[in-house]
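Step 1: inspect the first sequence and its tokens.
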Amino acid sequence: LQGELEWALLDLNDGPVFRSPIDLPRGSQKRVQVALLSRNFSRSAHIRIIVNGQNVAQQNVTIEPIEVDKYLVVVISSDPTLLNVVTTLQLPPASSTIVQHMRLDELPEQAAVLRSVNTLVLHDIDTAQLSPQQRDTLRTWIGLGGQLIVSGGVQGQLSAAGKMCIRDRSSIALHAQVFGFAIGYPLFAIE
């Protein structure tokens, strides 16, 4: 089944409709990440699968927007509970902290999708598996002020494989102070 995945916010009349190609082999199940940018507080969207111009499946889904006064930490790690304790911190000027976990293959390939992310933590994962588009996205996101933390673990050598550290020591020092971890040098540029 080859077609398009289409999604739109339900409470916007004549609002934008987003589309992305989708390939679903017969009998398959697929998890798809959808980049949805909104300037309002929409809490639901309509998703359709369209094949040859025909609607073959549709569903309304609930969206959990993250308000701008929240500090969002995205964690990509072999440990599904890593940094959950950070939700107890209040990092001024944010009203609270949210920790969201995702897989490496879910890391977006558009920097705009990371716009609401304050800090991205890559821990104990093989950073060499990042696609060129994901690397470009991280470069752009960091250049726009995103905070990247790369740490080791049991497979620490894999975390360093993609040389995903940054040279800006001021932002690293801030996170070292907030999260209480040690900094190892030298720092590398994203390659």
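Step 2: inspect the second sequence and its tokens, then contrast the two.
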Amino acid sequence: SPETDLNPWKRLGSQIVYQSSFVTLRKDKVKNPDGTEGSYTVLTPGNGRGSQIVPVTVKKELCLVRIWRYPVSACLLEFPGGGIHEGEDPLEAAKRELREETGLESSRWTKLGSLSVLSSYVYVAPDIFLAEDVAETKQGRLAEENEAIGDMMKLPIDDVLTMIQNGKITDSLTLSALLLYISHTGLLKQS
């Protein structure tokens, strides 16, 4: 394909340096674009696949959750999402993650797109889904205790945009998903 024809790298070998149920660290022996040999390290969370959800209420409020993120030692406000289990359909994973992290469900789903996150050294390719007219489930939230998920906030888009401008929402995946949502809804054309 034209995309792979542009690849200036050639993988000469590969070795798993570290692997757990959460992450794989791989070191490849490569031929660099300049023809010299070197190495390239790639980090893959889980299996590299995930689903991120943009939940929207009937009042057009966006639902975000507070999640403590250990690597940055901070509680971030994010759209719900998570990894896709082996053999799991991305949409089914999105529905599961929405239930687990928010206690919400939806019967109106749209795939907004797919992303590459930190693609210079990380392989993770989440699918982004819009869940419209979300409503509380009878079971409530099913998040595991070890996920450190806090409260959920329902906010109008203007408040979300203000929080981004004020540095209150900084998660790159959430910001990218929001842009896909804004593009999908036509809000960009209204300005």
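Step 3: confirm your contrast with the notes below.
The first strand starts at residue 10 and ends at 19. Residues 104 and 136 are 4 Å apart (CA to CA).
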